[in-house]
Give the backbone structure.
Amino acid sequence: MNILFLTTGRMQSIEQHAIYPDLLRCFRNHGHQIYIVSSYEKRIGRNTEYLEENGAHMLRVKIGNLTKTNTIEKGISTLLIEKQYLSAVKQYLSNVQFDLVLYSTPPITLVKVVEYIKERDDCKTYLLLKDIFPQNAVDLGMISTHGVKSIVYRYFRSKEKKLYAISDFIGCMSQANVEYMLTYNPDIKPEKVEVCPNCIEVVDASVTEKAKITIRKKYKLPLDKLIFIYGGNLGRPQGIPFLMECRKSLRKYENIFLLIVGDGTEYSKLKTFIGASEYLNVKLMKHLPKEDYDSMVGACDVGMIFLDHRFTIPNFPSRLLAYMQASIPVLACTDPNTDIGNVIVKGGFGWWCESDNVKGFEFMISEIIKADLKAMGKNGFNYLKEHYTSEIGYSIIMKYFENM
């Protein structure tokens, strides 16, 4: 089969270790031809190019800046992506007939590209639903369903509905996502919506006690404390104000150290907050190379997930997989609508509290201190192997093509 994958992110190589490259390698290793359309943001300074690398056909399209820029430029760049991708596909992939188109949200602005290929090749389309926009922006107060801001909402909501309509199959990250989709999009046929979770090629990223000491010394982390790590984006969706409150509540625990690794719109605010505090058991770092970050996770004791309490959509952050792969348990502080906490608790590899309940957070800390962290971390790694491998994701998608 010829498989086309569309993403507006920058995919440097199919050999990267992340949810999309890992899944695409599964397709490649099973004998399928893989075509990947990704982006070069303007700041990279490179033009559109098409080449073959590691058994995959890579089409990288020059677009405007989507990240590390102002809202106006990001908005304009987002609106132009569809036209730019469609032009590149017509120019470079006109002679390839596709059997399946895979694409993810965000964004929802590739509707015309998917629609064009589907009509041209009479192929199947599969949406990997990782984000529910524009409702997530409504939840955080960035846009509104009423007043002047509702113009933006209505535009993107129409795009969202169109994307769902042209998708033959919609793979959601969890059961809560499936239920949300069917509840708030009654026009969608239930039989085309299913769970297709975040998946990775599983590697044992746990570290030995000797390696843990070496890594902690390298990054000037304490050897004699329980280290709680939060890694990932530091933006509005993560509910940074609650993270700040949680950090205050940790003052009473001398044996706990908080490590925050990431970047985003709220990084400066968090840096200022930490700098003004007298509490020393905390370290804030910007993004590290993935290999370095993964080894650092393994040298910590508990992974943390934060989501803003205002969310009505059931997010399921993929950073969970890095913690599970490192065999460390997880503390999730989220809104009540996501089922990630339920998965963690029922799987026996972590704890959950609502992300507006500091007392609940403190109670969970007291439980964690008493827990067998190594045993719970091992539970997480085993759960990962049973539920979130790339082969599982591949099988879910390919069951529709068993006769091809």
In short: The longest strand covers residues 33-41.
